[in-house]
Structure of Sulfatase N-terminal domain-containing protein:
Amino acid sequence: MRNRTNAEDAIPARLKRPRGWALLTLGVALGFAAVTVTRLPTLALWPIAAGWLWLAHRLRWGEDAAAPMPRRRWPWSLLPLSLWGIYVYLADSFGEVDLGAVFFHLQAGISDHGGGERLVAAVLYTLAMLAVLAAFTWLVRRDGRWARHERLLAAVLLLGNPMLLGLGQRGMAFVTEDGAWLDRRYVPPVIQAAPADPPNLLVLYLESLERTYADRERFGDAYGPLAELGRRGVVFEGIRQLDNTGWTMAGMIASQCGTPLMPAGLLHDSQFEPLDRVVPGVDCLGDLLSAQGYALSYLGGASTRFAGKGRFYTGHGVTRVRGRETLAPRLEDPDYLNSWGLYDDSLYAFTREEIRRREAEGGPWGVIALSLGTHPPAGYPARACEARQGDHDGEDILYAVECSAWLAKRLVERLEAEGLLANTLVVLASDHLTMRVSAWEQLIAGPRANTLMLLHNDLIPRRLDREGSTLDVLPTVLEAMGFRIAHHRAGLGVSLLSREPTLVERHGLEAINARLKEETALQRRLWEGLDLPRPEPASVRAEHSGEEPRALPEKSASEG
């Protein structure tokens, strides 16, 4: 009995009381939330937690002398805290929370996703949030000061949650005075004239492999293989990311359709049933090229059922769509798969086969391939890179970046060696900026840009530093292929090979993103045929200085 008493006495008295554990839990949670949703360095977590504990000690939060409230009272802040927990989880998973991505994936389909590892994180987050809620409940029941002001705190937490703020902004789009700002600037893509010998097209979407990695001071030689390829072609710097273009489907639609992806189902819409068609109201690259006689193919390592990729491509002129479902059974090693699907070396081997097949069929062809080797959080480096780079530690994204860049370069070189790119425009582009990865703090330390480079014998190698976005990829690719389009414009994009100012150059990212939050007309255009609800007609009080027309027909004059 005496030994047990001595052992108990050895435990610090503070650790035997719930107050210390409750305050420590809340302090660590506050610090973690702060560094996750802001650009503070990770190490700032501990000073923030220490500051909370110091304040709690000075103000004697949770001590018996603080006139406790009834112990069975449930705090009003439990729901707001839970919503903040969801937001922090999303921010920790993706870096920046895009509600448009959440809504679109719920609507287009999230089956066959490869994010199984995030399920473990979700369980851990849930357990951590239960501890936070328990600690906060204890504090409110123990300290009358917290109990008296806790309802005000609940209101502040609700109003300050960026997730709820975003929902409110989208809801206000229903009553905005000008919900057609972007739609007035939209020019339906039309090919006016084609070259005598139209080139083939190879588009390599490099998952999350943004041009920011080209900064050698921050990332070393990880981007090196792509930089070598770029010396032979046209490299575009300054390709920024607009809202509603920051995930894979949104990035591909932005670059192929010239418009942000505004999901059909947002707060004021009722279109939450699975989609049969994806952006059926606009013409995209596949529609334009198929009308010119191109045979088009899409290959991706992940499932075509995820996020509506298959429905998008089959609905926009692509006749052969291949993903994990059809490619995995053809692997020599059926176990050589990651949680999302095929590794990039396997995907590129099938891409070569597809190009050979299309070349043998005759006529112009277009092949679009989407890698997944640099998919956050750590990437999925292919087996082919191990001999060159050594073993992957399972966390370093720069290893995956270098691997993916090298495999893309090797694919281009092998196709050239076979003579399959003799009259082919090769486009290498990141689908979007990366989400949270091991190099996140270095990535957000300065301006970020997407990868975009064009390779073709007729293009003079050069670097073009222009402020644009992925919306400008569609008209740029069309003009690089020799097609003539009205006033160098298609969708909301402007050819970066022309001297016409882009939307970003004319208005800036912040102004365009602000307009996106209010836009309803372009959303209805994208989803024409899905019977989106229309707001009551309202007077449009847009300011027109004469630089742009009020409405743009198919063959409109250029802006300005």
Remarks:
- Residues 2-174 form one domain.
- DSSP finds 22 helices and twelve strands in the chain.
- The chain has two domains: 2-174, 199-526.
- Residues 4-11, 266-273, 533-560 have pLDDT under 50 and may be disordered.
